[in-house]
Each structure stands twice: as C-alpha cells, then as structure tokens.
C-alpha cells in the first residue's frame, strides 16, 4: 500500500497514490482547506472541552472517578437544580394542596385537576411498575380501578396505605396481618388443603367435589373463618380478602388457591412517605381514588 | 496494488481545462429614474412599512388573551391574525393559506413573469435598500467605482465604515422586528434590552441580523442566481405568453452608436449606450434575451426610456413583452397577447376555491370542541356486583373568550349510569353540568357503569355536550367494552 512512487497523472497533473482498481487510479489530491481548518479547530476544541467538562476517567489523584472539569458541571447537579425549579414553580398550588383536606380538594375542580395531573405522572413513575397503567393490576398486585379493596378505598384510607405501606418493615403504622403458611408449616395435610380448596371454590359458585367441599367446610370454620369471616366476606381491618367475589389477586384457579393456602401470600407494598413528598402523596391518593373505585 | 501506466491510446486531454469556478464581479448599479423605479420605491415603502408596523397593531380579544393583531404565540399554542385565531388542531388553515399564496405566485408568474422577484421579494427589497444606503455614502455608480479603485484614505475609510454601520443597524432592525411577531411586541421590545427575553429571541434576532447584512450587503445578486430555487421553478410556470422584461430586437437592431449627422434611417433604435446594463442590479445585458439571472425589476426599461426620449425616439425599446410577440413583429406579423389562458384561469380558480373553502371553514368553525379518549388500561373494570365500568377522558376545548356551563349526557347504552370525577351529579339525573373555563382546554374523567349481563365484548355509546345558551352541541361516540363474547 505504501510503495514509493512518483507517478504523475497526465490528465490532471496530480500525483497518484499508486492505488489502482480495474485500471482506475486514485489521485492524491490534497484535502480541501476548509475541511482541514475545521478538523484542526475540532482538535483544539476537544482539548478545551476536556479541560472544561468532565472527561478523563480513572486518572490517579481523582479518587477513582473522572476529572470534574473546570466548569464543575454535572448532569446530577443539573437535575437537582431542575427539581428545585420545578418545585418552586409548583409551590403555590402545592401549598394550596397541602392546606386543603382531601375532601375539600375533591370539591374544588381546579385543585382537583391539578392534583390529578400531578398524581397521574407520579403514578406512572412510582406505582405503575406493579399496579399497571391506569391501575389495571397484575397477578399479585391488586387492580386499583375496581370497587374491591383489600384494606380501604376511602381517600384517607388510600393515603394511609400510601404513606405506611403494607407489611413494610420499620414502619410501626404499616398495615399488617399475617396468614399462616398452612402447608409449608405443616398445619394442614395436603389432602386437607385439597378439601379446603374445593370449599373455597364453592364460595364463587363454581363446580366442586361436594364431599370434599363438605370436609373443607369444617376446616374453614376452624382455621379460616376467624379472619375471612364465617361467610368468607373477608375483613378489611386486617386485609383479609373477600373470597366470594370474582376478583383473585393471586389467581382463582385451584392450583393458585392451593398455593395461596400452602404458602400464604402476605404481599408487601413499600411505605412511600420517606420517598415522596407530602403534596405528591396527597395527589396520588386523589388520583388512585379517581381511577374508579374510590369510596 | 497494480501500478498501471497510461494506456498508449488514452484520449489526450485539453491542455488547460477551463476552471469551473466563476469569480464574482462587483456590480455597481446606477440609479435609474422613471415610473418603474418609482413603483419600486413605493413597493419598498409599503413592504417595509407592513413588516415594521404590523406587530404593533393591537386587537383586543378579551381578558387574559393576547391583544396583538398578528402574533404566532408558541407558548399559548395559537396563531392570531386580526379576527382569525388558529388553534393547534386547525393548523391546516395555515397550510391552506400557504397553498393560496403559492397559487397566487403561480398566477402572477404566468401573467407577468418574475414580478415577485423584481419588486416584492425580501432579498430584492433589502438589497435595494442597502444599495440606496451605499449610494448615500459612496455616490452613484461612477463615484463608487472610483472609490473602490482609489487607495485607502481617510475619506474612503469614513465612507466605507459609515456604510457598514448603517447596514448593520438596518440588519439589526430587520432581525429585531422578526421576533416581534413571536412575542408581545411592546414587552419583548423592552425585555430584549434588559436581558430578560428568551434565548430564542436573541438567537433569531442575531441570525436575521447576520443573514440580512450578508445577503443584502455582500451577496446580493448571487443569492438569486445561485441560492434561490424559485428561478428554476419559474421556468416551468411561464409560457410563451407570459409578459417579461424584453428587449425588442425587432426595433432595436441593428444597433450602433448614434452619430449626429446620421439619422435613424436604415438602422435600429438601440444606440448601444449601455445604460440598461449600468442600472442592472444583476449585472447582465437584457439585450442578450431571457436569462436565468434576470429578476425582471424593469429598471432597464426606465434607463432605456430615458435615453429614447433624449434621442427623440419612442419609448418602450425595452418593455414588458413576450419573445413570441417580438418574433412575430420581426417577421412582419401582428403580435397576439393572451392574458386568459388555461393556466392563468386554472390558477385563479384554484386560488378562489381554496380561499372560499378556508373562509367557509373559519365561519363554520365551532365555538367549542369535544374529544373523548377511552382508557386503554384497563379496557374495562369488573365491579363486585357484576356491573362493568369503562373510563374515559373528556377533553373540551372552549374557544369562546368567556367561561360557560355546558350539559353533558350519554345515550345508546341501556341502563348505563355515568359520573364525572370531581363534579357531583344528582342521583338518577340524565345529564349534568360541566363548567368550561374561558378560552382553553379542560380535561374531565368520565366513568360509565352498565349492567354487563346483556352486553357484548364491544358496544358503543354516544356522549353529547350541549351549550344550553347557544344550542351548539357536539356528539362523539366511544367504545364500551366488557368481558362478554366477541
């Protein structure tokens, strides 16, 4: 490739590079001057940029991180500044939001719409991962748009759940209850559990093995009725679900119910009061309430 | 790599191939006097006047709404033009306006050639203004040529620097006036100088300042010749009947210098004085016929008429004419002029038709609008008692400048009940009040609940919003979904 040669092309009077493809020779024309100038400027600019902005990683003497740059700019501080600016912009409405009670907000259309917009975006960022867009729910994560609630569907109740979470360790006010793992802890034998499943299925009017269900009925009265109620309507004070409706958070098939009885679900939701500020939690409570199930 | 020598029978190239680069020749247009020059002064005053004055015209529209007659309000997402307000969803009216303008340009081009280029194009107007400034500082053609050829002196420096300062001031006023169309003019005119205007205002003011200074001061005719696509397009728009600035060679040839003792017997009227060339801002000779560079500003007509009057010949040796007519006269025939041709009629009809469509559309434009967006997630909600609920977002656009109360109702779904989050409805009422803010978009959340037993997977319902005062109502249909059979 780099043979020495001094062939001058007769057509143009320009030196050739010596590269030939199918008889076509490459001329060694100089680079356009404007292009060279731009290139040199770019190189100079790269050095200036390295000095001004965060650039070289893992240089000794910089604590294992990159050089910070003379301007001291970083995306993290820029985001922090923007968050401060956004909070300042929202502050008037946020203060009104904090001053008003949840029901007062519901009756003030303007404030309600502000809270809804704020709640919608906070829901998308924090809640939709588990509860789905629009609160549609998923297996193991309750739907929030229907009128079936495990703990509470009132504005205050939703706010309480948001603040303290469910079975959240380290929060004394968290919503708490514990269902025993009847199978894993050998409280019931597997045939007893099978009978119990048949009985539970009968609550929602499904075909069951009548004799097994009758056996299960006795077990239910002893083991389950204290929390789920004699008629299996559940108890919101302890988050015991209603077993008679068509809503099954962890699935309503016999295999799902068997798993629920054997291992207990005792699902968790984090407490949000340390992660989100008060106006956001308030807005979220209003938003969740407005999804359709609010009481 | 193979090193192949030139084959012996290669074609021998020309010894010195001509350069493809054409160096610019400085043009020193001489001041013309006459009716077309007067028309150009008037058009310049009108166009510049419109450009600088329009943003300052006020047009009260109501509390809290911009009162600027012509304003592109990006922050408020609206375009104001006197009595017309265009909302984002009606942006097609602007497209319609551009189409009308395009056909207008087509029409005048097929009638009068490049009349847009010659009189009203901003490049022409500002170049004309810059040449006027240049003339004020450096004198007319001959003086300017002398000054450019003279060695540097205090006199030359003062004249040149003065010219460039005035050019830059004009350029800044041009760029500065542009941003007045994007912001409240009195406000931005103040905040621009106190440093509180948005960055975009400084950017566009700066950009227009630079482009005006360079395009009108330095590049001038090169913009028209090399940069502008319009001269290329126009070739397809004109035909042999379009009136162009034309040298009437049937009358002018054979040309030659005028000698006192010799009359005009047996020769053409053109005395080869080259006045038409000297006044030309594009630096061309119109006697060479139609040319790409010619912007048809008609200054050569003024220059030639002046000379013809002086030598006692009839004016109009250069005039708005067609090549066809000149050729016909040269052959001894009688020229035919046709203003009504299929293309001019077509352009005019299209222009009128689209204008009429726009006007009818604007006149019938509703004063409020309803959009219904069905929740996609979840598509429906099963309630504990077996009923099914669907959620919707109602977006209501109130274009009136006052707040108003509308009534919303639903129909088409037997046994359905509805509620709107944040508003209370008396139990069992068939409609409920929906307050709309003045001049804006309101969003409401609508929940519709129906007994699911009889409903298929997908049915539809109608949502009607009525203004009881004006009687204007809008109905939108939306899907209602259940877990029922498909």
Explain the overall architecture:
The complex is a heterodimer of chains A (295) and B (486). In chain A, 47% of the residues lie in helices and 3% in strands. With 295 residues, chain A is mainly alpha-helical. Among the domains of chain A are: 75-174 and 269-290, Orthogonal Bundle (Cytochrome Bc1 Complex, Chain D, domain 2); 190-263, Cytochrome Bc1 Complex, Chain D, domain 2 (Orthogonal Bundle). In chain A, strand 1 (16-21) and strand 2 (24-27) form a beta hairpin. In chain A, helix 7 crosses helix 10 (254-263). Chain A is elongated. Chain A starts with 15 loop residues before the first strand and ends in a 5-residue tail after the last helix. Chain B has 486 residues and is α+β, with helices and mostly antiparallel strands. Among the domains of chain B are: 35-236, no CATH class; 368-481, Immunoglobulin-like (Sandwich), CATH 2.60.40. Chain B has helices at residues 35-53, 92-112, 115-120, 122-138, 141-149, 154-179, 185-194, 199-219, 221-227, 230-237, 249-252, 275-278, 299-310, 323-330, 342-363, and strands at 70-73, 78-81, 84-86, 244-247, 318-321, 368-374, 381-382, 388-398, 404-411, 417-420, 431-436, 440-450, 458-466, 473-481. In chain B, the strands form four sheets. In chain B, strands 6, 7, 8, 10 and 12 form a five-stranded antiparallel β-sheet that branches. In chain B, strand 13 (458-466) and strand 14 form a beta hairpin. The longest helix of chain B is centred in the middle third of the chain and has 26 residues, at 154-179. Chain B is elongated and about 115 Å long. Chain B starts with 34 loop residues before the first helix and ends in a 5-residue tail after the last strand. The model of chain B has no long low-confidence stretch (mean pLDDT 89). At the A-B interface, strand 1 and helix 4 of A face strand 7 and strand 12 of B.
């Amino acid at each position: 490739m780099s043979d020495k040669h001094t062939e001058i092309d007769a057509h143009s009077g320009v030196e050739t590079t010596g590269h030939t493809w199918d008889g076509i020779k490459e001329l060694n024309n100089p680079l356009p001057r404007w292009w060279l100038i731009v290139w040199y400027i770019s190189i100079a600019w790269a050095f200036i940029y390295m000095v001004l902005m965060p650039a070289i990683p893992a240089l000794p003497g910089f604590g294992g991180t990159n050089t910070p740059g003379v301007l001291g700019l970083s995306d993290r501080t820029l985001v922090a500044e923007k968050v401060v600016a956004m909070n300042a912009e929202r502050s008037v409405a946020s203060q009104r939001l904090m001053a008003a009670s949840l029901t007062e907000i519901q009756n003030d259309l303007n404030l309600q719409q502000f809270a809804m917009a704020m709640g919608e975006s906070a829901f998308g960022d924090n809640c939709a991962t588990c509860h789905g867009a629009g609160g549609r729910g998923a297996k193991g994560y309750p739907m929030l748009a229907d009128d079936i609630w495990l703990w509470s569907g009132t504005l205050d109740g939703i706010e309480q759940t948001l603040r303290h979470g469910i079975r959240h360790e380290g929060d004394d006010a968290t919503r708490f209850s514990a269902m025993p793992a009847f199978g894993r802890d050998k409280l019931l034998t597997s045939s007893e559990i099978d009978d119990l499943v048949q009985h539970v299925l009968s609550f929602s009017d499904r075909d069951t093995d009548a004799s097994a269900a009758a056996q299960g009925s006795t077990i239910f009265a002893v083991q389950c009725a204290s929390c789920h109620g004699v008629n299996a309507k559940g108890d919101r004070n302890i988050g015991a679900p209603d077993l008679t409706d068509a809503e099954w958070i962890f699935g309503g098939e016999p295999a799902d119910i068997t798993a629920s009885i054997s291992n207990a679900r005792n699902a968790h939701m984090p407490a949000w009061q340390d992660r989100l500020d008060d106006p956001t939690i308030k807005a979220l409570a209003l938003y969740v309430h407005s999804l359709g199930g609010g009481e | 790599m193979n090193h192949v020598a030139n084959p012996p029978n290669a074609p021998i190239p020309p010894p010195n191939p001509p350069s493809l680069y054409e160096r610019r020749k400085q043009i020193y247009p001489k001041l013309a006097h006459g009716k077309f020059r007067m028309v150009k002064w008037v058009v310049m005053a009108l166009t510049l006047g419109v450009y600088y004055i329009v943003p300052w015209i006020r047009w009260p529209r109501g509390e809290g709404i911009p009162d600027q007659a012509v304003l592109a309000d990006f922050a408020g997402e609206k375009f104001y033009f006197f009595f017309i307000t265009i909302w984002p969803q009606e942006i097609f009216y602007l497209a319609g306006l551009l189409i009308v303008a395009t056909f207008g340009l087509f029409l005048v081009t097929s009638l009068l050639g490049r009349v847009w280029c010659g009189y009203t194009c901003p490049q022409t107007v500002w170049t004309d203004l810059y040449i006027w400034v240049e003339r004020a500082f450096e004198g007319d053609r001959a003086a300017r040529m002398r000054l450019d050829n003279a060695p540097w002196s205090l006199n030359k420096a003062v004249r040149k620097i003065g010219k460039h300062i005035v050019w830059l001031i004009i350029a800044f006023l041009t760029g500065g006036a542009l941003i007045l169309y994007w912001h409240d003019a009195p406000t931005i005119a103040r905040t621009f100088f106190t440093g509180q205007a948005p960055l975009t205002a400084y950017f566009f003011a700066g950009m227009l300042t630079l482009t005006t200074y360079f395009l009108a001061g330095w590049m001038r005719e090169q913009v028209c010749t090399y940069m502008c696509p319009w001269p290329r397009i126009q070739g397809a728009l004109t035909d042999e009947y379009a009136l162009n600035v034309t040298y009437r060679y049937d009358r002018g040839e054979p040309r030659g210098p005028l000698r006192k003792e010799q009359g005009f017997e047996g020769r053409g009227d053109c005395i080869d004085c080259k006045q038409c060339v000297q006044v030309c801002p594009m630096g061309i000779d119109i006697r060479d016929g139609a040319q790409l560079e010619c912007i048809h500003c008609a200054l050569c007509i003024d220059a030639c008429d002046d000379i013809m009057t002086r030598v006692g010949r009839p004016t109009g040796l250069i005039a708005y004419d067609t090549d066809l007519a000149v050729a016909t006269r040269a052959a001894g025939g009688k020229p035919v002029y046709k203003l009504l041709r299929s293309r001019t009629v077509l352009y005019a009809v299209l222009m009128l038709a689209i204008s009429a469509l726009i006007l009818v559309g604007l006149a019938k434009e509703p004063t409020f609008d309803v959009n219904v967006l069905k929740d996609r997630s979840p598509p429906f909600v099963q309630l504990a008692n077996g009923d099914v609920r669907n959620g919707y977002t109602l977006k209501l656009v109130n274009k009136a400048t006052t707040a108003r109360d509308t009534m919303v109702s639903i129909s088409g779904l037997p046994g359905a009940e509805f509620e709107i989050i944040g508003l209370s409805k008396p139990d069992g009422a068939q409609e409920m009040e929906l307050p709309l803010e003045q001049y804006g978009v309101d969003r409401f959340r609508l929940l519709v609940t129906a007994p699911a037993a009889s409903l298929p997977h997908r049915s539809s319902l109608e949502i009607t919003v009525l203004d009881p005062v004006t009687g204007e109502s809008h109905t939108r249909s939306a899907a209602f979904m259940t877990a029922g059979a498909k």
